Amino acid sequence: MAAPSARDALPGEASCPICLEYFRDPVSIHCGHHFCRSCIERCWEWPTAGFACPRCRDTAPERSLRPSPELARVLEIARRLSRGETLGIGEEEEEEEEGEGCQRHREPLEVFCKEDGALLCAICRESRAHRAHTVLPVPEAAREFKGEIEARLQILKDGRDKLLEFREAEMRRNWEYLETTEAERQRVLSQFQRLRFSLEEHSRHLLARLGELERDLGKVQEENVTSLTKEISRLDTRVQELEEKCRQPDRTFLQVTRGSGMEPPGKENLQLPSSPLPELEKKIHRFREKNILLEETLRSFQDILMFELPEKMTVTLDPSTAHPQLLVAPDGSSAAATDPPGDGPGTDPSVLGREGVTGGRRCWDVQVAPAGSWALGVASGALEAAGETPGSGEWELWSMGLCQGQFWALTSLERIPLFPMPAPRRVRVALDYERGQVAFFDADRRSLIFAFPAASFKGQSIQPWFLVWGEGSRI
Question: Which keywords are on file for this protein (predicted)?
Fold first, then answer.
């Protein structure tokens, strides 16, 4: 009969009841049973009602894991026996003592070699390998290295403290900025609310004025109709009387006429009543003048908002979209006309900006030259229809420009002449994508040049568009 192996000879308590292997980092729990630390922690990862022992099901309200170093040493002996190793009496104590001394000479390690970074015994210190090296007693070397580590530790702590202070300062500044933005938000809301209330109050006042004028007109109309109706009735009565007299026989007619003291013909006095309508007409005219002034003020206010509110962006010209007769700067900041353009189709000397707009409010300023001709604005679908000309139906255009001294508003289909104006040096293009608005301003005078009616961009990317025409022309 074969002799039992070392594993078979060990008691069952040497194996974990969960993984059925030798204990790894054994711990005992509240009921006294032992388990691998990792096994019991996995079992107790999501406790439902207390912490139950997987073996006896005894439950504890709190988790308790007590290390078992004695069992760990027994298990180490079991593992070595299972590998066929033998252990002498007191071998562990000897290994611990050897671990604290020189493994070669069995002498205590008393000095530290700084060059090799190794602990040496007295015999190793006098050897040829370490004779020329700097050595220090272990306590002194430990103090020296601890001093260096403490210095580095202090540097790290100082750096950490500085970072903590910096973080606190950054957080304070961030909160201050958040408070500032919130204050600005409340300020904007308050200003526009006051403006809205003021406009509503003015609107109610103007509507009340109109109501008064309407009531005055109704009252005057009623009085005029009443007065005129009475006068017409009196005249009808007089006409009827005279007609009856005229139908009498001649002798009777003459006797009645002379005896009644009737005024001879031509003595009837007819006076038209004075009309109050001219005075009301003056009131309506004054109201219209004030209303027109108010409309101009509101339009100017809207122009200011349209000029100031959009986010300013930098536009870079895209040389790949430039006409061959345009010279585009390497950095995409300018374009100039070179040769006179041809006469055939597709010869418009234009160029697009790299940046597209697909939402929001954007604006950009363009410096224009007084010489030559130029135009600028936005184009929709221009990249997809590269090489096509305006009016081809492939892309749409909203722009304005100067051609031979005349300002024009230009679309893909038509040209609209604009009123004469001083030539601007800088033109601001303002785009409101959601509202479909494109407006042009004299950037220096902050005055509106022209604004297109609201359009639909149909979700397409809007590209800045520029045209330079004629010798000396440049943007």
Answer: Coiled coil, Metal-binding, Zinc, Zinc-finger
For the domain bounded by 312-341+349-381+396-469, which CATH number is listed? 2.60.120.920
Higher pLDDT, 191 or 316: 316
pLDDT of 256? 65
Residues listed for the chain = 475
Q: Which residues of 291-322 are buried (b: 16+ CB within 10 A; e: fewer)?
A: eeeeeeeeeeeebeebbeebeeeebebbeebb
Print burial letters for 161-188: b (CB count within 10 Å at least 16), e (below 16).
eeeeeeeeeeeeeeeeeeeeeeeeeeee
β-sheet bridge partners, residue 147: none
Of residues 331, 366, 383, 382, the one with CA closest to residue 442 = 366
pLDDT of residue 357: 92
pLDDT at 89: 41
pLDDT given for residue 442 in this prediction: 92
pLDDT score of 230 more than 90: no
Evaluate whether 287 touches 407 at the Cβ level (below 8 Å).
no
Query: Counting beta carbons within 10 angstroms of the beta carbon of residue 273, is it exposed (0 to 12), middle (13 to 18) or buried (19 or more)?
Result: exposed
With a CB cutoff of 8 Å and minimum separation 6, the contacts of 127 are none
- For residue 319, what are the contacts with CB-CB under 8 A and spacing of at least 6? 328, 332, 351
Superfamily of chain region 12-83 = Zinc/RING finger domain, C3HC4 (zinc finger) (3.30.40.10)
Residue recorded with tokens 């300062």: 169
Torsions phi, psi for 259 (to 5 deg): -80, -25
Rounded distance between C-alpha atoms, residue 24 and residue 38, angstroms: 8
AA identity, residue 309: L
- CA gap 65, 167 in Å, rounded: 39
Most confident of 27-41, 52-66, 101-115, 150-164: 150-164
Which pTM does this prediction carry? Answer: 0.50
Tell me the three state secondary structure of residue 99.
helix
The percent of residues above 90 in pLDDT, for the chain, comes to 17
